[in-house]
Amino acid sequence: MRLRVAQDVFVARQLGREVARAVGLEEQDQTRLATALSEVGRVLIALGQVADVAFVVEVNGVPTLRVAVENSSPGGDAGIGPRIAQVGRLVDTLEVDDGEAGTVVRMARRLPASAPRLTPERMDEIRAGLAAHVPSTPLDELSEQNQQLIAALDEVRAQRDDLARLNAELEETNHGVMALYHQLSEELEETNRGVVALYAELDDKSEQLREASEAKSRFLANVSHELRAPVTAVIGLTRLLLDPASERLGAEQRRQVELIGGSSSDLLNLVNDLLDLAKAEAGRIEPQWSEVDLRAVFGQLRGTLRPLATRPGVDFVVEEPRVATVRTDETLLARVLRNLLTNAIKFTAEGEVRLAVRARDGDVEFTVSDTGTGIPADQQERIFEEFYQVPGSQALMGKGTGLGLPYARRLVGILGGGLRVESEPGAGSTFTVRLPAS
Ligand code: ADP
């Protein structure tokens, strides 16, 4: 169609809407396209121009409706672009071609996927329909436009209502979340209070436990200390009674006095062991640190223990130390090793008992190994408990108190190291003392 006078703008608007409807644009898009077209027409007419409007449907690719408004009077006012800038918002693309030959405004709007297929037959039909279109009066167009405006306003109101409802829902959800949050923080606070109370109780209990343990150690130390003097006196008296220089005893009397002497010696051993352990537990042992010459320590152990290792089938081997010195307490180290070696000798009927030392990862490791009875796997930790003796284990000599290993482990702990055992019943045991080298 051709735009010449202001009235043509109304017709162009109507036609635009009709075309948009016929090719399947949705109602709002029909209004947008019609408005865009009438606005371009209005600007051109106001500038006193004459223009032709052409509608083209592109069916290849995304189906698109294109509208070209071509001003066929060259030399007219160029630069309408800025005046119709707002129109760009109503269509997908807007191009203004201001050339020598005139101005062409091209607009395009994509058809929705729901639009009916535009076959050549359908296009013919649309063309025929548009040809038969009788333009209505500007008044009709105005009323149509008003209807559309009302519809658009209704839609805006509906959207605003939706928004208000959504906001209300959001607020409600927020309330819910806040309530949940409060509830959770209250629960957390309560749990925390419980945990704090529990810890306080735990602290109390450990304090009580520590006090009880100290009381036990004190008691043991006192009792054993008090027992030592009378037991030593009994031993002294039995020796006196058995002395050949004393009055002669009958054979039975002699046997009984010997029994008293033996039992008293056992008791003294127990009392001494208890006293040692109690002292170690009460933290009353202060190590005397010095650079200890291991050759000397090993030599002394060799000398003092060889008399015990008298069984003919058992080799007693104290190796030459492979580490010259270690910074530790000589007396405590010697006691631990003597203790372990005595045990090894006690529980080994044949094979060998061996003491060795070597450097390991910056530490020093002493091993006391034997080929004796061995210790079942489930007892290997228990033997470090006080008074525990492996059931059925028969020492080949002496009676033992079950206090030697707990004491040894304490002493090694005081020296900053660890004591562990590896053993296989019937094959033997290896006790390992690991100490820091310096
Ligand atoms: P005691 O030797 O006075 O009984 P210990 O605490 O030294 O007490 O040892 C606890 C127990 O561990 C021993 O009674 C014995 O059953 C077991 N045991 C310790 N050393 C060895 C060893 N070298 N071989 C076999 N069993 C051992």
TrEMBL record:
<dbReference type="InterPro" id="IPR004358">
    <property type="entry name" value="Sig_transdc_His_kin-like_C"/>
</dbReference>
<keyword id="KW-0418">Kinase</keyword>
<keyword id="KW-0547">Nucleotide-binding</keyword>
<keyword id="KW-0597">Phosphoprotein</keyword>
<dbReference type="InterPro" id="IPR050736">
    <property type="entry name" value="Sensor_HK_Regulatory"/>
</dbReference>
<dbReference type="GO" id="GO:0005524">
    <property type="term" value="F:ATP binding"/>
</dbReference>
<feature type="domain" description="Histidine kinase">
    <location>
        <begin position="222"/>
        <end position="438"/>
    </location>
</feature>
<dbReference type="InterPro" id="IPR036097">
    <property type="entry name" value="HisK_dim/P_sf"/>
</dbReference>
<protein>
    <recommendedName>
        <fullName>histidine kinase</fullName>
        <ecNumber>2.7.13.3</ecNumber>
    </recommendedName>
</protein>
<keyword id="KW-0902">Two-component regulatory system</keyword>
<dbReference type="Pfam" id="PF02518">
    <property type="entry name" value="HATPase_c"/>
</dbReference>
<dbReference type="InterPro" id="IPR003594">
    <property type="entry name" value="HATPase_dom"/>
</dbReference>
<feature type="coiled-coil region">
    <location>
        <begin position="139"/>
        <end position="215"/>
    </location>
</feature>
<dbReference type="InterPro" id="IPR036890">
    <property type="entry name" value="HATPase_C_sf"/>
</dbReference>
<keyword id="KW-0808">Transferase</keyword>
<dbReference type="Pfam" id="PF00512">
    <property type="entry name" value="HisKA"/>
</dbReference>
<keyword id="KW-0067">ATP-binding</keyword>
<keyword id="KW-0175">Coiled coil</keyword>
<dbReference type="InterPro" id="IPR003661">
    <property type="entry name" value="HisK_dim/P_dom"/>
</dbReference>
<dbReference type="InterPro" id="IPR005467">
    <property type="entry name" value="His_kinase_dom"/>
</dbReference>
